[in-house]
């Protein structure tokens, strides 16, 4: 274990045919993350199915229904570790009817792998996957052009598809795009460098994942501390202790910082930043700490501690890119519970500004229904102000969910514009 | 100039603390499901950190099958005393005695599946609205689909195809009376992460995890501990071996491996070289391809 090893979360979107499961199986297999008993069980199943050798896709087997139908329905999380990093894969289905699962998997990812079948080039689904990566502000997109073995490992095919992708995604907010020609089935450029594509000068996929610069993915400028709960031990050693427990959403806090408590607006200074191991001089996102203040002020769950010279906007009217997650469509002007960090209020969807046509990615303003998998820009009004940043600046203080009070189900997820 | 990023263990720790604090904030009466195994010990350790300097605000709940390793029970009682916590025990023996469940028969009979009824009864009796577990997504394919906050209906059942969407780190613990949640703070940890962390933090764990001499019987390729509950087959022979356990379940179903690893460093090194999954020696998971999924749907841990 190396102390500096970081955690990288990435998402893969793809359907059965473009080799997503095979790619994940290959990554796990070639990075030696598969155990022998798993391998043995896969070998048996592969034989039963009449597969020559082992079917790598079986490593991503899930629930019984998914096995029977040979599809991924829900997000599955998979793990592997190399000498350089620990990886969490959010393995999501790629088909249009599972847009909500792709959005879910993308919400925590630093990087997205988009798979393109070299024989088919950029298709509608590719654009949708790129759009979701851009919508969820995934910092790094790695386009894997797969099945290169079926196009004679042609550099020409690779360049044509890369150009196609570049030209349509130039309009999207994707900061870092890379292209890798691979064969997941044969292992070319997944973990090991391909001997069939010496024209490709870049790194194989695993090396790319191991070296992506992710330290800047979290906002380290705007100090935001949503209060989760108040710690009051009332013990002999800590009789008057009052610590505000939470996870720093973004930025850096230091002892002595002048802070403002939102929404009340009270001013104070940070007296201490406490952890089980002792007090810290400074703490940064995403650390979980307890903060004590110089002054005794009324703070509870849902409040946010911020640095006084850099505050989020307190707003009751927000514009949101909303993804509808539930099979029950929204009722016009219906009320919901809105959750934003540790804060909770009532909210109403006031207006649909436009809906994204998920096929063409064009904006449609005449359709204002909210059905499952729809992505729309809406105006939301809340009963009390939320302390918001734009999602582009801050994934934590820029995101919300909506809950239907009649069923308690999470019905929508939104990114504040 | 300090670095402004966390290493992966610190990030996992911070995430787990966040989840534990969310549970405390969102539920009325949460408990930690405590089996005495390393994962529930880890969750308890993380809870200590999450609420410091206050003490852990959760009771520990143990589902006691009656087929325990004596070492596990001793360990449980020590940790409860040490941390000043309340212990709730759901007894499988009591469930059998009052006819809620019937004992399995046959050579490989276990009380593993019976635990579900006892667990759900205990959750109902003590009006628990959230049971915090040490389940990890890397353990098993059904567990790979678990949420951090996982809803259970008023029969205690899990519906994997109708789970609530869980995005970013916004958790929805809203529920109706009679329903409850399971929360999994260490969802994103792997077995190796757990051992690296236990090693780093020097967390006390039961002696069973360290190599020790024990009377055992070879069964299905693994060393099953000899105990009063084990029905021997004619050809089976009780031997003394130096073994350790990689996971702890019931004494009747937990297989040990021959090992010389008697310190945390040696265990961590041994686990990192292992070529089989940790549940490979658990006969409860070997029953069918969807054994875990089926049990989880019923309300198992």
UniProtKB/TrEMBL annotation, chain A:
Is Transferase among this UniProt entry's keywords?
yes
Q: Which domain of life is it from?
A: Bacteria
Q: Which keywords appear in this protein's UniProt record, sorted alphabetically?
A: ATP-binding, GTP-binding, Nucleotide-binding, Nucleotidyltransferase, Transferase
Class in the EC hierarchy, top level = transferase
GO biological process annotation, one example = sulfur compound metabolic process
UniProt keyword Zinc-finger, yes or no: no
Q: Which residues form the Tr-type G domain?
A: 5-220
Q: What PROSITE patterns does the database record attribute to this sequence?
A: G_TR_1, G_TR_2
Q: Which GO terms describe its molecular function?
A: ATP binding; GTP binding; GTPase activity; sulfate adenylyltransferase (ATP) activity
- The EC number(s) attached to this protein equal 2.7.7.4
Protein name from the UniProt record: sulfate adenylyltransferase
Q: Which organism is it from?
A: Bizionia myxarmorum
Automatic annotation (TrEMBL), chain B:
Domain Phosphoadenosine phosphosulphate reductase positions: 29-254
Nucleotide-binding is among the record's keywords: yes
Instruction: Tell whether Mitochondrion is among the UniProt keywords.
Output: no
Per UniProt, the keywords (alphabetical) are: ATP-binding, Nucleotide-binding, Nucleotidyltransferase, Transferase
Superkingdom of source: Bacteria
Q: Name one Pfam family in it.
A: PAPS_reduct
Q: For this UniProt entry, which residues form the secretion signal?
A: none
Q: Which PANTHER family match?
A: SULFATE ADENYLYLTRANSFERASE SUBUNIT 2
Q: Supply the name of the protein.
A: Sulfate adenylyltransferase subunit 2
């Amino acid at each position: 274990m190396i102390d500096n090893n970081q955690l990288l979360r990435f998402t893969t979107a793809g359907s059965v045919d473009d080799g997503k499961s095979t790619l994940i199986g290959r990554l796990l297999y070639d990075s030696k993350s598969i155990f022998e008993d798993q391998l043995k069980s896969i070998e048996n199943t592969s034989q039963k199915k009449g597969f020559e050798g082992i079917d790598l896709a079986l490593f991503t087997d899930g629930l019984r229904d998914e096995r029977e139908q040979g599809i991924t329905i829900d997000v599955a999380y998979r793990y592997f570790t190399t000498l350089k990093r620990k990886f969490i894969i959010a393995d999501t289905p790629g088909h249009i009817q599972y847009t909500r699962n792709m959005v879910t998997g993308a919400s925590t990812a630093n990087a997205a792998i988009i798979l393109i079948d070299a024989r088919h080039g950029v298709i509608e689904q590719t654009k949708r996957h790129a759009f979701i990566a851009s919508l969820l502000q995934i910092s790094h997109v790695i386009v894997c052009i797969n099945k290169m073995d079926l196009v004679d490992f042609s550099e020409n095919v690779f360049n044509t598809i890369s150009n196609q992708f570049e030209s349509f995604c130039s309009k999207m907010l994707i900061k870092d795009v890379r292209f890798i020609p691979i064969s997941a089935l044969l292992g070319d450029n997944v973990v090991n460098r391909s001997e069939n594509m010496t024209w490709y000068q870049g790194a194989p996929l695993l090396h790319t994942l191991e070296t992506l610069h992710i330290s800047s993915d979290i906002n380290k400028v705007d100090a935001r501390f949503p209060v989760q709960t108040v710690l009051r031990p009332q013990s002999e050693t800590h009789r008057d202790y009052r610590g505000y427990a939470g996870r720093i959403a973004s930025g850096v806090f230091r002892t002595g910082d002048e802070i403002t408590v939102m929404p009340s607006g009270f001013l104070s200074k940070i007296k201490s930043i406490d952890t089980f191991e002792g007090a810290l001089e400074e703490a940064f996102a995403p650390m979980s700490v307890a903060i004590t203040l110089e002054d005794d002020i009324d703070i509870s769950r849902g409040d946010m501690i911020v640095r006084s010279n850099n505050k989020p906007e307190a707003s009751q009217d927000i514009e949101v890119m909303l993804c509808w997650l539930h099979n029950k469509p929204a009722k016009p002007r219906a009320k919901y519970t809105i959750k934003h960090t540790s804060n909770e209020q009532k909210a109403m969807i006031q207006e649909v500004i436009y809906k994204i046509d998920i096929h063409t990615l064009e904006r449609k303003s005449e359709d204002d229904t909210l059905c499952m998998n729809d992505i729309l820009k809406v105006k939301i009004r809340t009963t009390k102000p939320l302390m918001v940043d734009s999602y582009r600046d801050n994934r934590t203080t820029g995101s919300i969910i909506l809950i239907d009070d009649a069923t308690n189900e999470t019905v929508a997820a939104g990114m504040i514009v | 100039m300090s670095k402004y990023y966390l290493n992966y263990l610190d990030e996992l720790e911070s995430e787990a603390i966040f989840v534990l604090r969310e549970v405390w904030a969102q539920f009325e009466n949460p408990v930690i499901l405590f089996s005495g195994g390393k994962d529930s010990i880890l969750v308890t350790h993380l809870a200590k950190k999450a609420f410091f300097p206050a003490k852990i605000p959760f009771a520990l709940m143990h589902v006691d099958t009656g087929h325990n390793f004596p070492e596990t029970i001793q360990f449980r009682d020590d940790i409860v005393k040490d941390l000043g916590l309340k212990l709730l025990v759901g007894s499988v023996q009591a469930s059998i005695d009052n006819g809620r469940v019937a004992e399995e028969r046959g050579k490989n009979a276990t009380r593993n599946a019976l635990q579900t009824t006892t667990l759900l009864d205990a959750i109902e009796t003590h009006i628990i609205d959230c049971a915090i577990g040490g389940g990890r997504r890397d353990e098993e394919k059904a567990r790979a689909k678990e949420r951090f906050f996982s809803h259970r209906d008023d029969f205690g059942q899990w519906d994997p195809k109708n789970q609530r969407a869980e995005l970013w780190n916004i958790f929805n613990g809203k529920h109706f009376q009679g329903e409850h949640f399971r929360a999994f703070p260490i969802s994103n940890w792997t077995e190796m992460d757990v051992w690296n962390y236990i090693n780093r933090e020097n967390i006390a764990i039961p002696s069973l995890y360290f190599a020790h001499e024990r009377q055992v019987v070879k069964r299905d390729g693994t060393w099953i501990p000899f105990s009063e509950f084990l029905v021997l087959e004619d050809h089976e022979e009780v031997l003394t071996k130096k073994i350790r356990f990689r996971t702890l379940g019931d004494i009747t179903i937990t297989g040990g491996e021959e090992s010389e690893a008697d310190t945390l460093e040696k265990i961590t090194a041994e686990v990192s070289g292992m070529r089989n999954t940790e549940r490979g020696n658990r006969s409860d998971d070997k029953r069918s391809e969807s054994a875990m999924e089926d049990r989880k749907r019923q309300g198992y841990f």
